[in-house]
Specification:
The chain is α/β, with parallel strands linked by helices. The chain has two domains: 177 residues, FAD/NAD(P)-binding domain; 115 residues, Alpha-Beta Plaits, CATH 3.30.70. 20% of the residues lie in helices and 33% in strands. It is built from six helices and 20 strands. The strands form six sheets. The chain has a five-stranded mixed beta sheet, with no helix packed on it. Strands 13-14-15-12-18 form a five-stranded antiparallel beta sheet. The longest helix is centred in the first third of the chain and has 14 residues. It is elongated.
């Protein structure tokens, strides 16, 4: 039987940072997914975590730029590597279910092996496939979440723009990134459109479907001056047009729509079990790195 004083439950960026700062073990069933276009605020100080680069300058239309802070995905992966190498992820990613009892938790791993883990206190960051928790105080299934529409760009994929912001909930951000498709050249870009909608709207309201997202993205690409392939000479040039050639509209094709799960609902804390909803920025601001720990030595060595 394992025995710990304090254990963190749930694999999120906040829990990984908390375990790193406080040197406590992390137990989870599923990792929270963080996509590559989640960033910290530009003024977030991550220098002690040895994260580089600390900011990204993405090109917008009309020679403007958007400044983002460090990649949350990069920080997340680095913290998990450090915790794993330090022995602070005792079941790695092998746990299939976790049941919380009054004095111990039961962890069932692959091949149905059962481990009992004693604890004095738990801090829960994510309840995915975690049973035995206290009653839910508040849950709102209609709150907005991130909707990710990944599109392949088949025409209009070569340009210098990295980011378009619309300031609307539906297709709020469009990020262009080097295509990862095997047939694409390194100078060609695909795109991710991020919306903030309820899960119900994303699934059942046609005006928020990936089809309408495609229409809106193409319109925004045209507004930004992104064009498709050449389509012959322009018969109106130069008398009635300054463009010597005609261009077709950009062409994009949906690869995948992802609906990011809602955050953990509000639970009632007990004497031994606390629930943490602090964002990563708050975890960083309220904690300091413990010196001379094995994890800190690994951080300095990497």
């Amino acid at each position: 039987m394992f025995q710990y004083d304090k254990i963190a439950i749930g694999c999120t960026l906040s829990s990984a940072l908390y375990c790193f700062y406080n040197q406590i073990p992390l137990i989870f069933v599923e990792r929270q997914k963080i996509h590559p276009f989640e960033f910290f605020e530009p003024n977030t100080d991550l220098s002690l975590l040895k994260i580089e680069p600390l900011r990204y300058d993405l090109k917008k239309p009309e020679n403007d730029t958007t400044v983002f802070g460090a990649s949350k995905e990069q920080v997340y992966e680095k913290m998990l590597v450090l915790l794993s190498l330090s022995g602070l992820v005792p079941f790695s990613n092998l746990a299939k279910s976790v049941n919380i009892g009054k004095k111990e938790i039961k962890v069932i791993t692959e091949r149905n092996k059962v481990f009992n883990v004693g604890y004095n206190s738990l801090i829960v960051f994510d309840d995915t496939k975690i049973s035995g928790l206290s009653s839910i105080v508040k849950k709102d299934d209609n709150q907005p979440t991130q909707i990710l529409d990944w599109f392949a760009v088949n025409s209009g994929c070569e340009h210098g723009i990295d980011h378009i912001r619309t300031d609307e909930d539906f297709v709020r951000d469009i990020f262009f990134y080097p295509s990862q498709r095997a047939a694409a050249n390194s100078n060609k870009k695909d795109l991710l459109a991020i919306s903030y909608l309820s899960e119900r709207d994303a699934k059942y309201e046609y005006q928020y479907s990936d089809t309408y997202a495609r229409f809106k993205i193409i319109a925004k690409m045209k507004e930004a001056g992104i064009r498709g392939q050449k389509n012959g000479k322009n018969p109106n040039y130069p008398e009635r047009s300054s463009e010597p050639y005609k261009w077709i509209s950009p062409k994009i094709q949906l690869m995948e729509r992802e609906i990011i799960p809602l955050p953990m609902p509000k639970y009632r804390s007990t004497k031994k079990i606390k629930f943490c909803y602090d964002p990563p920025q708050q975890i960083i601001a309220e904690n300091t790195i413990k010196l001379n720990t094995y994890t800190t030595k690994l951080l300095n060595a990497l």
